[in-house]
Amino acid sequence: MNKLFLRRLRIWKRGPAFYCGKLRDRIFGSDDSWLSERREDFPVGSWQWLALTERRYGGFRIGVASKDNRGGDRMSPFFHRYGVTYEEFLQPLARWRDERITLVEVGVLNGSGLATWCDLFPRARVIGLDINLNNFRDNRASLEAFGAFSRNKPELHEFDQLDSAKASMMLANMLGGPKVDIAIDDGCHSMESIEITFAALMPHMATRFVYFIEDNFDSYDVLAPRYPELRWWQRGEMTIAAR
After folding, report:
1. What is the pLDDT of residue 122?
2. Which CATH superfamily is domain 3-242 in?
3. CA–CA distance, 128 with 211 (Å, rounded to integer)
4. Which end of the chain is more exposed for a tag (fewer CB within 10 A), N or C?
């Protein structure tokens, strides 16, 4: 059997399949009682806090009519389970919540992610990049009705992940000097867009940073050998780089 197929199967079992059955229950508990709790009942930045915050701002909801489901399946343990990974890598950096760090998210869609990051890092400079910001603009009033951006407001900039000629220059002009402490690529998810975005952002990353790449099985295999000076991890469909 193809080695690449076997490796992807192994990764997938640590990803979406991980949510199912007894293994999921062993990690997250056999009941879903946490879903009825308030996010304030959990430590800020915990996976429960992240999942409930995402749900507050229009995240994926089981049993809710599709017209009320405004996307967002990132943090829940029943879908991508990225909340666990964000907790793993961001909790050691909890002091950053009180500092003026810079966080960049590529691919903002309806803005539920930006709302979550602004709540988690109320003093940060939170920057959202997308080739089409209309989805966010159309949904912003809805987010604000649920309390989003009351403590921190994001910057929004148009950004084309596939324009390798202009990507680095656009970032330099946008950042104006400060380095990026946290980067999140939730954009096109293609390997080409991931490579271009990573190469464009790297010169602007801080001395100590963490970089998350969502929804791509291959980014670890492609980027880790190319940047051996960084530390790398893979968690299912997410790749993490840090320095």
Report:
1. 97
2. Vaccinia Virus protein VP39 (3.40.50.150)
3. 15
4. N
